[in-house]
Amino acid sequence: MLKQLTFFILLISSLSFSQGLKTKGKIIVDENENEVLLRGYTPGGWLVMEGYMMQSEGTAGAQHEFVERFTDLVGEDRTNQFFAKWRENHFMQEDVDSLASWGFNSIRVPLHYNLFTLPIQEEPNADQNTWLETGFEIIDNVLSWAEPHKMYVILDMHAAPGGQGRNSEISDYDPSKPSLWESERNKTKLVELWKKIAERYKDNKWIGGYDLINETNWDLPGGVALRELYERITTAIRSVGDNHILYIEGNDYGNNHAGLTPPWDDNMVYSFHKYWNTTNENDLDWILPLRENYDIPLWMGESGENSNKWYTDAVHLFESNNVGWAWWAIKKLGDIDSAFSVVKNPGYQDIINYWKGEGDKPSEDDAFAAMMKLADNLLIKNCLYRKGIKDALLRQPHTNETIPYNKAQEIPGMVYLSDYDLGKSGYAYYDLDSADYNLSTGSFQAWNRGWRYRNDGVDIETNDDSKSNGYHVGFVGKGEWIKYTVDVKEGGLYRADFRHASAADGARFYLTNNNQNLTSVMTTNNTGGWFNFITTSMSGLVLNAGLQEIKIHFDSNSEVNISSIDFVKVGEISQANFSSVSAKTGSDEKSIELYLNQNLDENSIANSKDEFTITVDGESVSINSLSYNEDKSRTLIINLVDNLLFDQEILISYSGESVLSKTNKPLQKFTNLSVLNNLEARYVLPAKIQAEDYVNMLGISVESTSDTGGGSNIGYTHKDDYAEYKIYNDERRKFTVDFRIASNSDAGEISLDLVEESTGRFITIMDKLTLPVTNDWQSWTTITKNLSEDVRKGVHIIRLNIHKGGFNMNWMDFKEIDSDGDGVSDSNDNCPDTPQGTRVDVNGCPVFELPLNNFKVEVGSATCVGKSDGMINLSVEDASYDYSVTITGQSDLSITGTSTTASFTGLAKGTYEVCFKVVGQDGYEQCFEVVVGEPKPLSAFIDVDDDSGKISISMSGSDSYNININGIDTTVDGDLFDTELSTGLSIIRISTDLECQGVIEREVFISEKIHYYPNPTISNVNVHVGGEDASVKVSVFSEKGDLIYTRDQNVEQGSRKIHIDLTNQITGTYIVTLESKTVRQSFKIIRE
User: Fold this and answer.
1) Angstrom distance (rounded) from CA 670 to CA 674
2) Cα separation of the two ends of the chain
3) Cα torsion through 167, 170, 171, 177, rounded to 10
4) Of 412, 553, 833, 1060, which residue is most buried, by most CB within 10 angstroms?
5) Rounded Cα gap, residues 801 and 699, in angstroms
6) CA distance 351 to 578
7) 414: which residues sit within 8 A by CB, 6+ positions away?
8) Has residue 617 got a pLDDT over 90?
9) Model confidence pLDDT, tens digit, residues 951-961
10) What is the mean pLDDT of the chain?
């Protein structure tokens, strides 16, 4: 009876707990057992400042550093005032109301432990914890704001006592103090803190659970220490009767759950984080087994910091796998990837500049005022609202529909290009760079390179042009486009005024209306600068009334900035002739779409095929038929017999009278209208396909390769990954494929499928191939296999299927099969099974040949420069054939009968091609390139050392040289000659035994030394003159070069002095020259 009573009391106790969320197998349910998929947002930076969010990284990255530096500026009291205001304004009821109205059902609150208790270093009693009410009041407030909206609040210990990770910005870790993992006191404090929180909120059903430790990042072998602490926290929470969900993050920023299985609690969820990597359909395969193996839910607890495309794709990935999520962060300073961008005030930037050593120290009052202004900027009314964020997270993952950014822009009127529709990439816009996958690719990619206004791939910058809304799109690339929903109030003829700027020529763009070209292509010129906006107009646009879709397409990689398009009505549709607008290649790669300015009468095209002419790369091609699509009433489709390729130039002409508009207007004739060729690049077989050039893939990553030729390779391959490549084959034929492979330890396995694009049918063209192990990821080898099936004519996709991963691939080289190895593919080989090594013609058949040593060519050079007396002597070994010999620029020779030699004489220096032909063997020819030389020109370079009198002569043009110095001859074998000259003038003559090379003559003067003093002087300068000359010629010049005087002066015997008199000269600088038989010197004198 006592046991029954005890059970009844425990049952009543458990029923009294107001259970909110709980786990049920692999899902989370509410108190009524309804499944709940968590869609949450996190007020990152609210209670734990992170340097990158404050733009103070590098100077105050962690919160404690920020506090210390700010306290140094304004003191502790004012610092506390600021943080109180920061917490008050950063996240409040209006923020929760916004999240609820958008459709979020949960809030992840990142907590700092120091809002609840003191650091262990500040505890007055080491055996006790001091509890602070601040943190609990914050949680109370969030719960009171969330409960009316039935939103769940998940408490996240973002900064644990001591810090749980080495990245101090995230956990406020101070390396000068013991971390969470290095201090038992810190661990105990964390356990007691969670217990205290549990005691207070155990009965609140809007507590969605406890995220026990955020992003541990520490060396914890096997996860043992992490699990031990988790279990201690779990025991403490459960000991007070709290049964809320426990969210368990792994080590290494949340994603390494080693040691954390199996689960130790029956109301537990494994949590992971995802940033900056791919969002393919299999990108959760690494974490999903935790759910399947342990029958436990998963929760993606933190993600963000990327583009809207990445947001949409990531949420789609999570929800397709029934995984709830929480986003980071609601507000950020001066950024585009959060729902609200906090405006950075100049005073705050002054503080950051001072901290970085780039500015003056602000006064205490100025610094405090600046920080309080920053706190005030946190209010929603003062933030920049990025409406695309919530749309990307909540609407776009579930629809391809686009909606106007504000409302449909009206025509007639100005369409601002920054206000394009809200929607997915590929539906509202297409941009070549629309997300950052740096953890997968190895490099950061900006999506909006202007980093303004919106968080999509469209690149937006600010400007001060009077005809803009303050923004323009830029950094455009070929193939990009942007879509606008417009409300055409009046149908009619329009002029489009484009407001654009660029610093270069060549940007190309055009407009489409409801996916039919509205304009021809406009090419812009340099406007004088990227922000020097001008207006350029296009006329003749026909627009019908009502809601319309208009896109601007960019058709070159030359960049242009465009801010707006002003649509001006200039007439009525009835006034317009029926004419062509433009044309482009069809998506089937076998047709051309001709766009017209008015609706086409489909009945008029029945017999008009012959009135059109299509040329491809200058050649006329066959038209199969003309067709009409009622969904594109302004488009005539011209179907061709053969496929088109991406690099072809295509022109269209019309010379008939049959084609009519709906209003019975005849189509105006036109000639050589250029067709926009927007086809994707394809590999034309045979071809070497670079493995990273896929058009679709699953699970593949790209990295740099050290293989020959450099570039990139694919890697990180796993079972069921694949990559697809677009190809074109102009005839049905067989291929063999070389695969360039590297593998560290695992033997991968692949196969190839051919996907027919017209039907989607898969055909296996290569059975499974086991790849070799090369013992290193960048040790490359080539393995070859023949395809088991022909590749059919036409456009296809080749799919590389990965059955076993663990390898890298650089390229696949498709070659036509050449069974006999003669260099001619089987499809062109008229002589199969040619013996190995046999020389064959283009048809694969053996050709006549003689051994190379049958011919001997000897050359005699010209005897001198410019002479034509060189010769080429020829001989043959096999005299059984008659030969004809040709040489460049000379008459042919014959070697016939018993003769085996011939000669070409009278040849000038040059390169000659000598070719032997055998009479009666058409197609045989053996050629040699022969060089007839001549002696090099004589040249000499004399290097003089004035101090020592030594000279060095470098010569070229002969093996032996005759050198005459002042009448004395010397013969030198070699190109160098050194000697010492006497002072005075020496005449040097250099020649060779070849008279035609001429003579080189040089004069060299070696001067005696002089010494002069004093300098500066007020009157005379004494000059000591070396040598034995009795007199010297003295010339004195002014600094400007004017001659002051020149005279011959005797040199005093014994002292060897002369005197230069400057007594009567004004102060300044003078130039003195001395000349005699053995002296040539000049120097400067300063007259004071």
Assistant:
1) 11
2) 128
3) 40
4) 553
5) 11
6) 65
7) 467, 564, 565, 566, 567
8) yes
9) 999 999 888 99
10) 93
